[in-house]
């Protein structure tokens, strides 16, 4: 029964992932339309700033999510430490935790810098776009970020559920 429930949960997660991927494709198409519009109205150096911001947005958000996910896994492993855990493993987990914590702080700094750059890009676009077009751009940035977060969360849930299912199937003769 538990295996059946896990398989059902996985099917639902896979279906949800397909919906999110479809939304991501729509968002990417919308992004291409925005890109063409910005290219048409902005100066080349302003357009380059816009493109660098959009490219870095995905990279920085993905980096932050990846580091947070890895840090959470290390923290979970650290919570499972008990008297039988050897000293080398404890030391290794502690070092990984410190490293990932520093890396995540660095990624947060990158995100803050990216947020400042977004304000600069918004200021540039405000000179050329109508209020509605500017709101459309801001919504695009929000949706793109939300979809990246949602995709990463679904991938983590799927991975965890697949690992649970595999462990459970191996435990049953």
UniProtKB/TrEMBL annotation:
Example GO molecular function: actin filament binding
Gene3D superfamilies reported in the protein's UniProt record: 6.10.250.3120
Coiled coil, from the record: 90-120, 144-171
Compartment list: Cytoplasm, Cytoskeleton
ASD2 domain location: 1-173
Alphabetical list of InterPro entries matching this protein: ASD2_dom, Shroom_fam
PROSITE patterns: ASD2
Entry keyword set: Coiled coil, Cytoplasm, Cytoskeleton
GO biological process: actin filament organization
GO cellular component terms attached to this protein's record: adherens junction; apical junction complex; apical plasma membrane; cortical actin cytoskeleton
PANTHER family: APICAL PROTEIN/SHROOM-RELATED, PROTEIN SHROOM1
Family: Belongs to the shroom family.
Protein name: SHRM1 protein
Organism: Aegotheles bennettii
């Amino acid at each position: 029964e538990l295996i059946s429930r896990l398989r059902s949960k996985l099917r639902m997660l896979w279906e949800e992932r397909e919906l999110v991927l479809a939304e991501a494709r729509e968002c990417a198409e919308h992004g291409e339309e925005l890109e063409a519009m910005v290219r048409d109205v902005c100066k080349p150096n302003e357009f380059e700033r816009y493109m660098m911001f959009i490219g870095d947005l995905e990279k920085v958000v993905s980096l932050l999510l990846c580091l947070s996910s890895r840090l959470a896994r290390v923290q979970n492993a650290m919570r499972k430490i008990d008297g039988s855990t050897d000293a080398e493993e404890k030391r290794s987990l502690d070092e990984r935790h410190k490293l990932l914590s520093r890396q995540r702080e660095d990624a947060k700094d990158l995100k803050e810098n990216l947020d400042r750059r977004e304000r600069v890009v918004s200021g540039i676009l405000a000179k050329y776009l109508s209020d509605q077009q500017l709101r459309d751009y801001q919504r695009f940035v929000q949706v793109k970020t939300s979809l990246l977060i949602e995709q990463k969360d679904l991938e983590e849930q799927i991975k965890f559920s697949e690992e649970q299912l595999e462990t459970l199937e191996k435990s049953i003769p």
